[in-house]
Structure formats: C-alpha cells, structure tokens
Write a structure and sequence with these properties.
signal, Immunoglobulin-like, Chondroitinase Ac, Chain A, domain 3, nine-stranded mixed beta sheet, mainly beta, eight-stranded antiparallel beta sheet
C-alpha cells in the first residue's frame, strides 16, 4: 500500500501537534499572583435598602444584619433617608482569615475566632455612620456558629498599640498596622446556633476570645529558604493552627533578619501549618508549607518555591 506525500505530511503534522499538546498539558501550571488573589479574596457583598423604614440582609454564609429605622447618619450627624448601599465581608473559616489578611491576634496575644466581618454603609458614594442615638437598640447582627461554637466576646479593630505585645520592639515590624481589642461596653449573646450583638460601628468586628493554653510559651523564628533564583516581594509568614480557629502572621525582625513570632506568645506543643506566600519578579506565586509542632526557642528554615495552582488550591482546601 502506497502513501502519498500529502498524506504523509498530514500524518507527520498531526503527530507533531499531538506531541506539542501533550507537552503543553504536562507543563506545570504555575499560579499567577494577581489572578490568584483576585480569585481567592474574600468577596464584598452588596445590598440596598430604605434607611428611613429599616431593612434586613443575609450574607452568603449566613450572617444576618437587621437595620432599624433611621439607623444611619452622614458625616455631619444628620439622619439619612432614602436608599442606602450596605456592603458585607464574611470571614467564617481559617481559610477566609488567611485570605483576608485580618489575623486573629491582639497586640501579640493569640485570639480564637468565631467569625469576623466588615459591614459598611454608603449613600451617593459617601461613607455613613451608625446613628449613636439608637444605643443598644441599634443594628443587630447574628453570626452563625460555623467556625466555632465556644463562648466568645466582641472585638473591634483599631490601630496597633506599639507599646504592647512586642509589636514595635526589638526591630520587629508588624505585618498589619491594625489589631483587635475587646469592645468594652457592647453586650454579646452566645446562642445555640449563633453569636449576636449590636454593631458598634461600620468597621471590622470579630466574635473572639483570648486563647488560653496552660503550656509554657515560646518564641519561634523563621528564615525563608528560596528554591528559585528570583526576587520575592510581599512575603508573608503565616501560622495556621490545626486544633483552634487561630491564624497569625510573623512580623519581620530587622535586628536579627528573620521573621519572628511575638515574644513568648506560642504554646509549646501546639500543632500548626507554617505557610510562606509571596510574589516573584515574574508575577508568580512563591509558596511553601509544612506541618510543625511548636518547641522551645524553635527556628525553622522554611523552603519556598514557585508553586502550581493545584498545589496552592490543595493546601487551601485542607484548612477549611
């Protein structure tokens, strides 16, 4: 049987195309940093309602917020009427905490979270405030107990106190300039299925408590061990605890040129995932993770490398 030159050419081209496709399919699909963060950031949900009569909203993860009549005032303290826009971010898992950047610590002390959220209100593109005249009868929030079911209290976000928790001492630079503090005067309800409270303001709030562990506390240092010859920026060193709903970052200590936990803040014997994540000069995710058991005065040389999307997704799926 004879094969024409044309047919042979077509067959050869087909084989080359299949080989090329196989080669491309086998190539690692590295994660682009910008696309990764866009796809995984905690979404901002948007609602509208009538400010004069009041209205309620329910978030995608079950957070309920009830706005009574005349709940909003503008920047001059005037009661707002008409249609307002309310936005909501729900942080109700350790994965959400990691991806939101709003970690569970208070001036260097560990917090155990039952859920965080950011509620804001706007009219005509301008930020509104909670009507202070409403007091305890103001905006009511219910947070489902999907992240935790322990007794909690209400915390609010504020600028970090540089004089506490080692946040500004010893050359440490906090990863986040804000921290959590207890809300001193807002009643808090621990129901069978939800936490409930009156919203103190349009800011980040947290159903939280200080984590108590009888074990001795220690300080841990981390030094990234880069596997690729590439400059890495926006680098974060994160600790995701396995048995409690706690996620923290390690500030960078310039005096020792290492990432370092807050002094004597980590319970010896606790188990956690150590996570390093950053962006290289080509725009790809640099990533590394390992399971650790915290020991006294521990130092970790932590590998970090250009990671595939599947690798990062697999880790995120394991810390729900």
């Amino acid at each position: 049987m004879k094969t024409s030159l044309f047919a042979a050419t077509v067959i050869a081209a087909s084989i080359a195309t299949l080989a090329s496709c196989k080669k491309n399919n086998d190539a690692p699909q590295y994660a682009r940093a910008e696309a990764f963060w866009d796809a995984n950031k905690v979404p901002t949900q948007s609602f509208t309602g009538n400010a004069a009569s009041g209205f309620s909203i329910i978030g995608e993860k079950g957070t309920k917020v009830k706005f009574p009549a005349n709940a909003f005032v503008d920047g001059n303290g005037n009661i707002v009427s008409g249609t307002v826009t309310v936005t909501l971010k729900e942080v109700l898992s350790k994965k959400d905490v990691l991806l939101s950047g709003v970690m569970t610590e208070s001036n260097g002390q560990l917090l155990e979270s039952g859920g965080e959220m950011l509620i804001k209100a706007l009219k005509d593109g301008k930020d509104l405030q909670v009507n202070p005249a409403l007091g305890d009868t103001g905006i009511k929030v219910e947070v489902p107990k999907v992240m935790n079911n322990k007794d909690m209290g209400l915390f609010v976000q504020q600028k970090r106190d540089q004089g506490q928790g080692g946040a500004g001492g010893g050359g440490q630079q906090p990863q986040n300039p804000t921290t959590w503090i207890p809300a001193p005067y807002y009643p808090f309800g621990n129901g069978p299925n939800s936490y409930s409270f009156t919203l103190p303001g349009f800011t980040w709030v947290n159903c939280d408590r200080f984590y108590s562990d009888p074990n001795p506390k220690t300080t841990v240092t981390v030094l990234p061990a880069f596997q690729d010859n590439n400059q890495v920026t926006d680098l974060q060193v994160i600790l995701v605890f396995k048995n409690i709903s706690t996620v923290i970052t390690f500030p960078f200590n310039y005096s020792i040129q290492k990432f370092e936990s807050y002094q004597n803040s980590l319970p010896i014997g606790s188990q956690a995932h150590l996570v390093l994540i950053g962006k290289d000069s080509d725009g790809f995710i640099q990533f590394g993770t390992q399971s650790i058991t915290i020991s006294a005065n521990q130092h970790i040389d932590a590998p970090i490398h250009k990671a595939t999307q599947a690798e990062v997704d697999a880790f995120l799926g394991s810390i729900q």
